[in-house]
Specification:
This protein has one domain: Eco RI Endonuclease, subunit A (ECO RI Endonuclease, Chain A). It is 34% helix and 14% strand. The chain has 7 helices and 5 strands, in the order ααβαββααβαβα. Helix 1 runs antiparallel to helix 7. It is globular and about 50 Å long. The relative contact order is 0.18.
Length: 200
């Protein structure tokens, strides 16, 4: 293991369960704290993809058949929740944190009707995958993104099966953070599955 990898591991082990009181921004706050004095950094709401659709070329027929407003479109893109950067290797990974209700004890099956987990799948599309790979420096077969699920969805028998199916072969790239806001299991997943992608 790289020495920087070990240093981050030691820091998260020291940080541990003491952060259990953190609430909504638990992901960002936890990683901001554990990345202090390391080669890693976390950025909230990175902006590099905010215009990626503006200059998408359409064929002439498509361009003629759509609405073409007089006002020029200057912003049209996607936003990820976070970006984790290894400043030494210059590699990064984009992170989506999806909190969603789910079907658990004492709730009707309809409690799992949200679609945040479905929206997260846009990063699997060929065009976005190519753009994220180019920006992140993470090459196939790894993915340039990591999705962290929070809330009752992490125990919903239907949604957990859906997500597990969708990510077949890419187990490292999603995580059910059932113990949120306690970051121990989250840091362990990062250490075992994500950090190695950023070190190479």
């Amino acid at each position: 293991m790289a020495s920087e990898h070990n240093r981050v591991r030691r820091k998260w082990q020291d940080y541990g369960g003491g952060a259990a009181a953190l609430a909504e921004n638990a992901f960002f706050v936890s990683f901001s704290e554990v990345f202090k004095d390391t080669d890693y950094n976390i950025v909230s709401k990175p902006k590099e993809f905010s215009k990626i659709y503006v200059n998408v070329r359409l064929n002439d027929r498509e361009a003629q058949e759509i609405y073409n407003p007089e006002v020029k479109i200057t912003r049209h893109g996607v936003s990820t929740d976070y970006k984790i950067i290894n400043r030494k290797s210059k590699k990064s990974i984009y992170v989506e944190v999806k909190r969603q209700d789910g079907w658990v004890e004492g709730k009707p099956r309809s409690a799992g009707r949200g679609n945040a987990h479905e929206r997260s799948c846009k990063f699997f599309t060929p065009g976005l995958l190519e753009i994220l790979r180019k920006e992140s420096g993470i090459l196939p077969p790894a993915l340039p993104f990591w999705t962290v699920f929070q809330g009752d969805i992490t125990r919903d028998p239907c949604r957990v099966r859906e997500i597990t199916c969708w990510y077949t072969g890419y187990d490292a790239h999603f995580f059910f953070w059932r113990s949120a806001p306690d970051p121990d299991s989250l840091f362990e997943h990062f250490d075992n599955c994500i950090a190695p992608l950023l070190e190479r």
